[in-house]
Structure formats: structure tokens, C-alpha cells
Design goal:
Length: about 120
């Protein structure tokens, strides 16, 4: 591990979670992802860090990585409507509208927003 990587992985999980939020709120999505990757590796069963990692990848146009993380979120929590919405948007951005449509409909149904369903 080089010194640069140590900054993103140093400290207890709570400190890194707070650091990831700071980067995300500052729209430093790639830096947030670097912090969140170590958290997800440590606690793969937790949905919140993985969802924020997916959001960081999405906002930094790393759509393949975002899709992978969103699918992992949905494996753990199939009714996570925001992950479904993001997956649909991610698939749309990749030009995969046919795959996106069912995800977007399901996200709308799960959130109770039937105007788009």
C-alpha cells in the first residue's frame, strides 16, 4: 500500500464513513469511492456503504462499477427502491433501455409513485 492509499483506508470505520460523506457532499465522488471501497470490503453485508459506493461510481461515470454495486445491494435488499431506481438510470445511461424499464417500473411501485409506472 502506498502513502496515498493509506489516507483513504486509515482509521476506524466510523471515521472513514464520515470522510466518505465529506467527499461525497463536496462532489469528490472518486475520492469518496476510494474510502467506501475499504468499508464495503470490511462489512459487505451492510447496504448503506455499498449504496453510497454505487452512487459515487454513478456520479463519476463509472457505470459498470455502479451497476455491479447496485446489483449487490439488490441481492441483499430486493425492496430497496432507490437502488432499483439508480440501477434503471445506470442502465439507461449505458444505452440499455430495455433492461432499465422493468427496474424503473419496480422502483416506482416500491416507492408508491405510480405516476411513472
Amino acid at each position: 500500500m502506498n502513502l496515498n492509499d493509506a489516507y483513504y483506508t486509515h482509521g476506524p470505520a466510523a471515521d472513514r464513513w464520515a470522510r466518505a460523506h465529506l467527499f461525497f457532499d463536496a462532489k469528490e465522488y472518486e475520492k469518496a469511492a476510494r474510502v467506501l471501497t475499504s468499508l464495503v470490503d470490511e462489512v459487505p453485508e451492510q447496504v448503506a456503504p455499498r449504496l453510497m459506493l454505487a452512487r459515487s461510481y454513478y456520479h463519476s461515470a463509472q457505470l459498470g462499477k455502479a451497476e455491479t454495486q447496485l446489483r449487490a445491494v439488490l441481492e441483499r435488499s430486493p425492496v430497496e427502491h432507490y437502488a432499483r431506481l439508480m440501477l434503471g438510470r445506470c442502465l439507461e445511461r449505458q444505452g440499455r433501455a430495455d433492461e432499465a424499464a422493468p427496474q424503473l417500473r419496480l422502483a416506482a411501485a416500491l416507492s408508491g409513485d405510480f405516476t411513472d409506472a
